[in-house]
């Protein structure tokens, strides 16, 4: 009896698993879910924990063991999607950026979107000029510490905040000046709204970059925004296709195609190459979801799309959520007292560190500044050495930070400190969506000096399996390329080979099935009474005569006998 109880309890434990979700304020929500629980169940638990009703803008993101990002599909089992053993670690992120943050109904929703855009600013996904950067940072400062107080905020206090991947002392002084003189009296709610309204006017608002290469082999980043499909190269936006112009998104292996119709019936096809087939599939699914969310009028208009024109090949996917118009209509019906918001305030953050304590060390600790600079230089060198027609520095944003080639060779501390031009600030000079720190002896020191966990680990920490970086750099050196070629086949390559074999087998089976169906149709036509010339010629051949008398007629008599027996049996049963 006791053994049966123990075995049943063990089986119940096996059916459960722990799950940790990192929220936008870097707090963690931990729960226990059933192994067969679907993504929607976990998402509803998080939204209930946050008291969030306008939840359709958000999603849960995770990273698989191969360091590939995914959005958790709410209609499928969590355990089957994770490709790893529990406990599972995921992140709550904004999946669909609201086109107009001021139109959001509730303050709690705006606050969460504010945290996401602040994160984008810090990780270099939000491009801006120096004047815009100073204003955005001042809004963050006002929202976090309130009005300037000489007794609480000593000289250089703005430098103890990390708003961007890198910034100069002149920019820090400008941030403090705006905070002291222009934002007095603004509440955190007002500062956050002003921040979002300013960010929403920038070209890269809502950008979640996917690293790719164009047909010439030049690095590029593809992104989907509330306003359309965007291509970024260097600090420049080279393409913007509005959602109503995009007609089809298609991928095959590593190749991604965008079909669009522009003015005067001008049809264009853009082709890009992702680093892996899994990355290309993730890019395609993100594009399908964003197009459905922002373009369609009703969720009933959503259709299942295929990545290929052939019915027996490719992936099929269907967006399962609401569209933007429905979300706005549903938000307008919300009638409740505004929920209480617990702002992070002075609490240090892993991804966007708040005010730090201790001696003034400039905005970024020296060791971390050097690590960020190394990844910046690798990206810039690869882009500058390529036959790239797009300039590295932004045409519309003036002169950006462009370190000399000698700085990458010199290992001294003076050469590793990135100095920003006073005329312009662009946090994406690194050509990388997120700077990647070196994993060595410098990392613990950087964490200690900053007084908070290193913010550079923010994106790769979603994996939940390790703290290794998820760098998507295309500017590898020749030596690194030779090392990659000499490595044994990875799980993604094996999976790609298996997909190819399954595709060939599927094609073979479909061909055999079609031939069999055509043969049956031909036999039925020749044995029928149709008087057609080519059928008469077939009936006169000796082969058909032999088939008719030796095979077809006996088989027909056998079927007729069986049918009569079945008919007689049913009649007798009825009586």
TrEMBL record:
GO terms for biological process: actomyosin structure organization. Residues 342-365, 385-430, 456-488 are annotated as: Disordered. PROSITE patterns: FERM_1, FERM_3. Its main location: other. It is found in: Cell junction, Adherens junction. May be involved in regulation of cell migration. May regulate cell-matrix interactions via its interaction with ITGB5 and modifying ITGB5 cytoplasmic tail interactions such as with FERMT2 and TLN1. May regulate ROCK1 kinase activity possibly involved in regulation of actin stress fiber formation. Residues 403-430 have a biased composition (Polar residues). PANTHER family: 4.1 G PROTEIN, FERM DOMAIN-CONTAINING PROTEIN 5. It holds the Pfam family FA. SMART domains: B41, FA, FERM_C. Keywords: Cell junction, Membrane, Phosphoprotein, Transmembrane, Transmembrane helix. GO terms for cellular component: adherens junction; cytoskeleton. The lineage of its organism: Eukaryota, Metazoa, Chordata, Craniata, Vertebrata. The chain crosses the membrane at residues 500-526. This is FERM domain-containing protein 5. It comes from Oreochromis niloticus. Residues 17-298 form the FERM domain. One of its GO terms (molecular function) is cytoskeletal protein binding.
